[in-house]
């Protein structure tokens, strides 16, 4: 673990630090080649000093507190911290190493203490309260009123009303949580990277596709195991292995390793961390007057409270579980018909579901993947965005990137006006955490009348090209790329004033609307014919395959909905606790999932010990958000079905009312401005075949 940094006599921590001067790069993109690990901690420390001076200037301003000299000034403060942490936070997830992880363990408590110092500053809060008290007489714009309201609530929720020992305890809780949640994610990444399923006998490759066999051989070569085949816990490796491997013992082995990440009683074990995180979150919520962490979180979301989340999840759980039971029966029938004498287990589901899909629809991923070469899918996504919003994407080789895998694009309006920069980073590596996400190196905002343009990144984990073929995506992966691109549009097309409200700075259960609605275009026949071309022949995907894809859209929806809902309920199980009532994480998880009636053939999409979303990624009491947003996106897409997939008026309304507005208004108001009414759940139930 790194405890300190020493610069050599030749290095000046100010002169040599790229963060302390204007970037001399196109659009002031971070000069990644010049940024070194030793620059981060001094950058954060100087950023803290600068923001402290800015806060002092606000407090000591002799003028009567008003919106500009207090609320706006506070929002503009901390620019150096944002500059440094924009790079550091992204590298920590997309291109980390032990040195960066060590720095993170130093930075996290420093930032936690710094933000507590702001939220718990009595004089600053007095100025904010003064402005808030006279808000109705200030003739503020809607965006200004929203910023004022949010800042006032931030102080209350940040402990501003706490006194004495309570305030000190509050600081300590935040400090501990900043470190514990960081450690949780590091442990999951370490466990994911550590496991390798090594196959030495070619007979054990039975069922695997030629591409998957090539992938295993290349992974083995990279690991110094020439002549063997290696499969890992990264999704592009384990998921197709579970789907195609005919060797049940190997499926069980890799699946068991996957679900036991963080639960191996070793140095990466996460069980004790979970207990500490859950207890600290509850203690903090109670200090602020809430009866649970969920109550604290949901107050700021569209759902508002745990009862509304519970109602939604149960409304979907009953029909989804019924469908999943029927699906399990169908899969067990195949096992029996093949003369096998075992009961369907979770590591069997994907394998037999693939068999059933071939049987029912004459369709499998291997027939589809040649039409979904990554490069073609990417071009298709760009075309959809251009047809909807008139924007274009131009690759820029002169813009620095943070890793050789990353590609930089300049995004422009139809008239050539610069919008922002988009990084795309597609393939897994040991320095990158699993999953897919969007983030920003710099958000859009306006300062001194000048629009600061965004720098956005989308990060995925798709199979690398092999020696014989390009990166070919499953249709699920194709949908994932459309999803993350939707988040990217939310950041790129942001057109608001104040940093705290721009882009994806919206409630957690609203932020998934722009991403999930984009998935709809991926499967539309008109769009498929635009981008789905065979990587060898250039042939457009035939209508027969489109028909099969459409007919199979309900397939396995019981399983997919149930495994997702189970994880959502597990999240709420931990965070809606009013008292800590468990001593063992595995027992709590088992009891929670048994209570909802989860069938043994299906596991929760995330087990507790690797549930990064809720214990490391900001989705605590919020994993339900995907299904909440699914109601919004299914209903919203009906507008495009009614008016045309690329109807300019509908697209412009979605851009103006959703993508550009960030968190400048209540999300339901923004939604109804676009749709004309609050969302209806019926389109979602139809889409999933749950009616």
Q: Which SSEs are present, and which pair or pack?
A:
Blueprint (H helix, E strand, L loop, with lengths): L39 H20 L7 H10 L2 H16 L3 H22 L2 H12 L8 H16 L6 H31 L2 E3 L10 H13 L6 E3 L3 H10 L3 H12 L11 H17 L5 H6 L7 H32 L8 H16 L3 H4 L5 H16 L2 E4 L11 E6 L5 E8 L11 E6 L2 E3 L2 E3 L2 E5 L15 H18 L20 H10 L2 H7 L11 H9 L5 H19 L9 H11 L16 H4 L9 H19 L4 H12 L7 H9 L6 H6 L4
Parallel strand pairs: 5-9
Antiparallel strand pairs: 1-2, 3-4, 4-5, 6-9, 7-8
Helix pairs in contact: 1-2, 1-3, 1-4, 4-7, 5-6, 7-11, 9-14, 13-14, 13-21, 16-17, 16-19, 17-18, 18-24, 25-26
And the CATH topology of the domain at 370-538? Answer: Neurolysin, domain 3
End-to-end Cα distance, whole Å, is 54 Å
Low-pLDDT windows of residues = 1-10
Largest sheet: 5 strands, mixed
Strand order of the largest sheet: 3-4-5-9-6
Mean pLDDT: 95
Helix-residue proportion: 40-55%
Topology, number of strands: 9
**Could you name the CATH class of the domain at 370-538?**
Mainly Alpha
Oligomer: single chain
Q: What radius of gyration results from the CA coordinates?
A: 25 Å
| Tally of DSSP helical segments | 27
Please state the structural category: mainly alpha
Strand content: 5-15%
Q: What is the molecular shape?
A: globular
CATH architecture of the domain at 370-538: Orthogonal Bundle
